[in-house]
Structures are given as structure tokens and as C-alpha cells.
Specification:
Layout lengths: L10 H7 L2 H22 L2 H4 L7 H8 L2
């Protein structure tokens, strides 16, 4: 039975089969960009920057 002319589509099967590589690539990309950003913030140049919101935490961890 169609509701307002719309058919039922197998959305869960479509997402799990066709879009699986794109979902996996999105997760990997998000993880790698997050790690690269974290590494960039913790470099010597930006760790001492007073505008860095995590500067105090980074300085505290550097003394240990």
C-alpha cells in the first residue's frame, strides 16, 4: 500500500550495503583529522600560545 504515492524502500538494507564504504571512510577521516589536530595543538609553537584554550593543560602535562 502506498502512502501519498510513496513506496516502501528497504532503507536499512540500502544503508548497510551500498553506503558501508562511505560510512567507514567518514569514521576513519574524522578520527585521523582529530588526531592530526590534537598533534598540531600540542606542538611547541602553539602549546605556549596564550590564545590556546588547552595551553594550561598542555603545560601541566609537560612538567610531569
Amino acid at each position: 500500500m502506498a502512502f501519498l504515492g510513496l513506496r516502501k524502500w528497504p532503507t536499512p538494507a540500502f544503508v548497510s550495503t551500498v553506503l558501508r564504504p562511505f560510512l567507514a571512510a567518514s569514521v576513519v577521516t574524522f578520527y585521523l583529522v582529530s588526531k592530526m589536530q590534537e598533534m598540531g595543538v600540542r606542538t611547541e609553537t602553539y602549546a605556549k600560545d596564550p590564545e590556546n584554550p588547552n595551553g594550561a593543560q598542555i603545560a601541566k602535562e609537560a612538567h610531569h
